[in-house]
Amino acid sequence: MPNPDPGADAAWCAPGAARLGIASWDEEEYFVFNPETGDTHILNRIGLLLLRSLAEQSRSLRELQALVAAGGYSVPADAIAVHLERLCDLLLAEPVER
Q1: Which residues contact residue 21 at a Cβ distance below 8 angstroms, ignoring those fewer than 6 apart?
Q2: Which of 10, 12, 14, 90 has an alpha carbon within 20 to 30 A of 98's alpha carbon?
Q3: Type and span of the H or E element at 24
Q4: How far is 2 from 24, CA to CA, in rounded Å?
Q5: How does pLDDT run across 73-87, given as a tens digit for each residue?
């Protein structure tokens, strides 16, 4: 899986996210079960926010940064790129052509 391009106009999506099972015990960490791979992953609030946003539609880094800010979080673009890289490594997101 290619690493996400941190360019502001690069885009990502979350294929199959509608089939994910999501649960939280403490509202700080979220368990995400991917039935396609049989894997369970733990995401923090930002990771889950990004995943849910990408499940709605593919988005650019710039769009994701605006959504995170609208959610009340101050997260720089390079930190969002790290979250995107992790989602890609977990096979929960992937880069797309726009």
Answers
A1: 31, 32, 33, 35
A2: 90
A3: strand 21-24
A4: 29
A5: 999 989 999 999 999
